[in-house]
Request: fold
Amino acid sequence: MESFIITIARGYGSGGKNIAMGLAKTLGIKYYDRELIRLASDQHGINEALFNLADETHSASPFAKKYTSSEIESPDSDSFLSQNNLFNMQADIIKRLADSGKSCIIVGRCAHHILRDYPNVVKVFIHADLDHCIENVKEYNGVDDAEARALIARIDRERAQYHRHFTKMEWNDARNYDICLNTSKVSVEQCIDIIVSYLDIIKKIEK
Reply:
């Protein structure tokens, strides 16, 4: 496996972004989080703010249009700026990164599902106990317990709905991933070591 992609899905407050950043530094590769939005915006000439509005969120309304196709709509289509089409544009960027031959880390945005047929992908899910997430969110956002709890509930619900809409699967189902790590039990640094060790094992198997 000359190049590889590591996808990281994460619960809010679990430290997934810190793991992605540390892993990128350890491996000497790039990681993509919100930069994916800028890349999709540049590629398709759409205001970045529109992508931000649909970023890992989805309306649970029964009137929301079902996701049925991964094809990107043409600019003259009524659905060009729909959430489904914005997702497809972002998915296109994720596939381009995977096809580039350069190793990288991609955070969230159903990357593990979008790249499910790629052989060189390691899919990781980061989660933590609620109390651990609350403490992290309080420190990061400067909020109290109640506000942190509400933020976690809302953001994790939105991510779960987003994932369900575009993949027809549950976001926190361990069967979707190669590795699931609980940062209540192991530190960010230990998580990085575990992922690197797993990657080394996979590389040796494929030689």
Remarks:
- The chain has one domain: 5-206.
- The domain at 5-206 is CATH 3.40.50.300 (Rossmann fold).
- Residues 23 and 196 are 8 Å apart (CA to CA).
- The radius of gyration is 17 Å.
